[in-house]
Amino acid sequence: MSVTNEQVRHIAKLARIAMSDEEIERLAPELNNILGWVEQLGEVNTDGVEPLTAVIDQKLRLRDDVVNDGNIRDEILANAPDAQHGFFAVPKVIE
Amino acid sequence: MTELTTKTIAELRDGLRGREFTAREVAEAYNEAVSGAKALNAYTVETPTDALAAADTADAARASGDLPSLAGIPLGIKDLFATAGVDTTAGSHILKGFKPPYESTVTANLRKAGAGMLGKLNMDEFAMGSSNETSTYGPVISPWRRKGSNVGLTPGGSSGGSAAAVAALIAPGATGTDTGGSIRQPAAFVGICGIKPTYGRCSRWGIVSFASSLDQAGPMARTVRDCAILLEAMAGFDPKDSTSLDLPVPQWEANLSSNLAGKRVGIPKEYRIDGVPAEINALWDQGIEWLKDAGATPVEISLPHTKYALPTYYIIAPAEASSNLARYDGVRYGLRVEGVKTLDDMYSATRADGFGAEVKRRIMIGTYVLSAGFYDAYFTKAQKVRTLIKQDFAKAFEQCDVILTPTAPSAAFGIGETTDPLAMYLNDVFAVPASLAGLPAMSVPGGLDGQGLPLGLHLIGNELDEQTVLNAGLAIEERAGFTARPEKWW
Q1: Is pLDDT above 90 for A2?
Q2: pLDDT band for position A61 (50/70/90)?
Q3: Is pLDDT at B2 greater than 60 in this prediction?
Q4: Per-residue model confidence as pLDDT tens digits over B375-403
Q5: What span, in angstroms and rounded, lies between the C-alpha atoms of B329 and B106?
Q6: Complex ipTM above 0.90?
Q7: DSSP letters along B307-322, please?
Q8: Using the beta-carbon criterion (under 8 Å), do A8 and B377 form an inter-chain contact?
Q9: Across residues B359-364, what is the average pLDDT?
Q10: Is B96 a catalytic site residue?
Q11: Does the beta-carbon distance from B200 to A12 stay under 8 Å?
């Protein structure tokens, strides 16, 4: 499988990375090179093999369903590029 | 006081207790060495007052005689660890100015053990790289040079700042992280030790995420003993990390022993690959002899899926990265590009400006292999091959107790010499399989090559068996007698 410029543009859109046509054209062969290389996994017979989900066998723990932090609004907002009235502010999304 | 910077962490610890010098003298010696080594570009932030404060606490506590294990030891911290109030940027422009209001569990553990911080260490952007060239701060320059040359070399990556700092005596030890070799390859390139423990030993909480099923923190230091000391302080169960292992931390230092009688050392035949310099294979053979001399028995083993480890890694790691890095949206922290109209454009413009070329490449690969229609062909397939790689190791450890290989397929290369992404990825050909299997693995210096550059030997242990890895490392260290240090040019 190889990706077209159009597919690369679509992936960039999914990944929310703005890219010029020039960048798309440069990236497409690079991605195809890498994808072509990883496709050698097709040689491996994986019939009946379960995909690995936990690298070291362990049970996922559950914690008690109680609030264990909170009241740290200002700390959470401290690094925001734009915080207003105790909220994260973003460009207007509705007219 | 420059001689203080040549001491190991064990020597500093014992000297402080024996009142040979004060912790303040140690911190001052290191602070001076750090500020005099800017040409290496190893530190992104220097925190001399932090190191001095920890030193003063240690000196005051000496009166009571009850010192924690790392009292007054100043350390370098990779920029991937969240440090409260101190810039934490993962080597990326997109996290510019980010000052976490919290401390990572690993660095909090080190602080609890009495350690101070010399500063934050440069690294490949989001730990994606094998040469430290993808950092927004520019590459770290290795303190090592080829004989008779002044060409700038890479210290490896992604923990390149950590490696360079420890080798250049501007930190006695440092934290690193290893997703696919990022502790071990740079340790090999600069002639120091570095261990990645079993996945889950060190909490990932507060470490900027790259590929969560692979990321593990570990120490980098000048000796095997120092690695054991640091790892004991860094490791431990943390309820804040869902994959943290709920197990007691072994006494790795107290149990260090280079007597390997009864131990079997696996030599995987698939690691004899084309294109590896003869010197590296010769060092590998020498390593086998050293371990035999320590009482171990070499056995040939087979890890049949070795050649598929790198392609598996380059599906799984970018997939996880593309998901983890979705959080950098210009809303909550770091960079925001202004002057665009819509929210969606703000995300795209911020991420276009904030991420470097390698990070974008991996996000794109990751997004593609997880996208509708391709998920099973790439991601699920890779997770199945990962199961087979894990099974290879499980079978191998029925026949042996520890595995010996070279750490990297070459010595350090020049900055700018490797431009093809695939060629760069091949640096981790020996390191990645253990990462995919979550196994403890360590690099120890074995010797110098013909150009006068360090080469490392790589030990892989069974899960939870860091002790055998450290012990085999100690056996190599004692026999290799590696004392070479880079000549100071900075």
Answers
A1: no
A2: confident
A3: no
A4: 999 999 999 999 999 999 999 999 999 99
A5: 26
A6: yes
A7: GGHHHHHHHHHHHHHH
A8: no
A9: 98
A10: no
A11: no
Q: Tell me: the pLDDT tens digits for B52-78?
A: 999 999 999 988 878 999 999 999 999
Considering only CB atoms, which chain A residues are within 8 Å of B335? 81
Inter-chain touch B349–A18, beta carbons under 8 Å: yes
Rg (CA), chain A: 22
Which residue matches tokens 């990779």?
B78
Choose, from B131, B142, B162, B182, the residue flagged as catalytic: B182
Distance from the B343 Cα atom to the nearest Cα atom in chain A, whole angstroms: 5
Q: Would you list the DSSP string of B53-96?
A: HHHHHHHHHHTTT---TTTT-EEEEETTB-BTTB---TT-GGGT
Chain B residues near residue A1 by CB distance under 8 angstroms: 374, 377
Q: Across-strand partners of B219?
A: B175
Give just the sign of the alpha carbon dihedral B349, B424, B324, A4: positive
**Cα B59–Cα B65–Cα B68 angle in degrees, nearest 5:** 75
> Would you say residue B308 has pLDDT above 50?
yes
Q: Which of B405, B399, B185, B428 is nearest to B285 (CA)?
A: B405
The boundaries of the domain holding residue B372 are: 1-490
Q: Residues with Cβ < 8 Å from B69, sequence gap 6 or more?
A: B13, B113, B114, B229, B232, B233
Q: Is B69 on the interface with A (CB under 8 A)?
A: no
Strands B402-406 and B264-268: parallel
Two tokens, residue B243: 């994959």
How far apart CA B420 and CA B320 sit, in angstroms, is: 23
CATH of the domain at B60: 3.90.1300.10
Find tokens 């593990």 and name the residue. B216
Q: How far is B130 from chain A (nearest CA, A)?
A: 16
Asked whether the beta carbons of residue B343 and residue A91 sit closer than 8 angstroms, the reply is yes
Residue closest to B10 by CA, chosen among B235, B294, B233:
B233
> Chain B contacts of A52, Cβ < 8 Å?
383-384, 386-387, 390
Q: How many helices (H) and strands (E) does chain B have?
A: 16, 11
A78 contacts in chain B (CB < 8 Å):
99, 101
The answer to whether residues A39 and A5 touch, using CB atoms and an 8 Å cutoff, is no
In this prediction, residues B437-450 reach a mean pLDDT of 98
Strand partners, A84: A87
Separation CA B202–CA B176 (nearest Å): 11
> What per-residue confidence (pLDDT) applies to A1?
66
Give the total number of structural domains in chain B: 1
Does the pTM surpass 0.95? The reply is: yes
Q: What is the pLDDT of residue B1?
A: 47
DSSP state of B249: P
Over residues B195-210, mean pLDDT: 98
- Alpha carbons B50 and B54: distance in angstroms, whole number: 6
